[in-house]
Amino acid sequence: MSGNVSRRFSAAAAAYESGAAVQAEVARELVRWMELPEEADRVLELGCGTGLLTRQLCALNPRPAVHAIDASAAMIDVCRAKTAGGPKLTTEVRDMRVSLPEGPFSRAVSSSALHWIPDLAALFRALAACLEDGARVTFALMLEGTLEELSAARCAAAPGVEPPVSLPSEGGVGRALAEAGMNADRVKTETRTVYYPCAEDLLRDLHERGVTGSPSARRRGLTRGELRKLKEIYRHRHAGPAGLPATYRVGFFDTGMV
């Protein structure tokens, strides 16, 4: 996660969950899907944010010891305030791109965070080094095709402007895992769609969650004229009885070492 992205999420920490319905659903589904064994007693959570997944983990019985990290101190503060983790929950402000905590951990998990990492293979290699033998890595992330309606409208409104972020494909995640000596034993993808009354509400929701803007200072944002054109194109192409759709494509991966 770049410094720009970390700062945006820090600014959005207090209000993040008010518009994070999809992220909350993904965290709940990940816990249902991951098949956490009783012996997985030391779990590393990558990119915990405000604790949407952390709270699910801390509600399990038996409760694992969870060490949750995030690059944003403000997000960590909200996570601690919202999570009744007791002594089995520890948190740390740490940028996972730079370093990971000392292991060994019996399981690593992450929900709606790893799509911000530009070099997933490097992260997975570092992660493999802090896991105990037989440990698994289970995560969910947004895939290529997420917010495709918005991306298409943006390209049409400002064809010469580089998109703010490029999300990984399912195949790209698989290749990154393979480069790190990991194998995705179970994979599934889901599509979730949220509807908004207007494009302004969608953009406001994304902004309040720290999603809008560019992760690189070298990439410019849209001008007012381009933004106005984006809204017009979005409305013209996608308006329907339920409102304007915003589609999320989510990948779930459960992996072990090769």
Automatic annotation (TrEMBL):
Q: Which InterPro entries match?
A: Methyltransf_25 (IPR041698), SAM-dependent_MTases_sf (IPR029063)
- What Enzyme Commission number does this protein have? 2.1.1.197
Q: Which GO terms describe its molecular function?
A: malonyl-CoA methyltransferase activity
Which superkingdom does the taxonomy of this entry point to? Bacteria
Q: EC class of this enzyme?
A: transferase
Residue ranges annotated for the Methyltransferase domain, each copy included: 43-134
Q: Which UniProt keywords apply?
A: Methyltransferase, Transferase
Coiled coil segments of this chain? none
UniProt xrefs under Gene3D superfamilies: Vaccinia Virus protein VP39
SUPFAM superfamilies annotated for this entry?
S-adenosyl-L-methionine-dependent methyltransferases (SSF53335)
One GO-annotated biological process of the protein = methylation
Q: Which Pfam families match?
A: Methyltransf_25 (PF13649)
Q: Does the keyword Transferase apply?
A: yes
Q: What PANTHER family does the record tag this protein with?
A: TRANS-ACONITATE 2-METHYLTRANSFERASE, TRANS-ACONITATE 2-METHYLTRANSFERASE-RELATED
Protein name according to UniProt = Malonyl-CoA O-methyltransferase BioC
**Species this chain originates from:** Kiritimatiella glycovorans
Gene behind this protein? bioC_2
